[in-house]
Write a structure and sequence with these properties.
Layout (H helix, E strand, L loop, with lengths): L7 E6 L2 H11 L3 E5 L3 E6 L2 E7 L9 E4 L2 E4 L2 E5 L2 H14 L3 E8 L7 E7 L5 E6 L10
Parallel strand pairs: 1-4, 7-10
Antiparallel strand pairs: 2-3, 3-4, 5-6, 8-9, 9-10
């Protein structure tokens, strides 16, 4: 893989405080700059900007992947194997209502990965995944 290059993603929310608690307290993302209209997070080395814009929050559409309804619009991060499992345990203990429970997708196939999907408090879908073998991230 090439040198790490952080991405920036802006997304809609309805409330700064509930978003701060979710991304900051639950997911452990450091908080950057903020105003009463937006808040930035260090999302595992990437910059997320959550902007109050409730009219931009949409119904979720999904596509079938590995027999599951995967939200089309989602974002997330690929974590190291043990870190992914620790986060899955933390979220289960917290009582997160998963869209797709933590499981191993494409087991025994090219691209085998641990994955889970859940919503933030504003209905934005997140996917966290991990590859035991990181060379499989872009394998065909």
């Amino acid at each position: 893989m090439s040198e790490f290059k952080p991405f920036h993603l802006a997304f809609p929310i309805r409330d700064i405080e509930e978003t701060r608690k979710f991304y900051g307290d639950l997911l452990g993302c450091a908080i950057g700059r903020s105003t009463d209209k937006w808040i930035d997070f260090n999302f595992f080395g990437h910059q997320l900007s959550a902007h109050i814009k409730p009219e931009e929050l949409h119904q979720m559409s999904a596509n079938q992947v590995d027999g599951k309804n995967v939200p089309v619009r989602h974002f997330g991060v690929i974590l190291p194997w043990e870190e992914w499992h620790q986060l899955a345990d933390t979220l289960q203990e917290y009582g997160i209502d998963f869209i797709i429970e933590p499981y191993i997708r494409f087991k025994g196939e090219v691209g085998e990965q641990a994955t889970m999907f859940f919503l933030d408090p504003c209905g934005n879908a997140l996917e966290f995944k991990s590859f035991w073998d990181e060379s499989q991230i872009f394998a065909k």
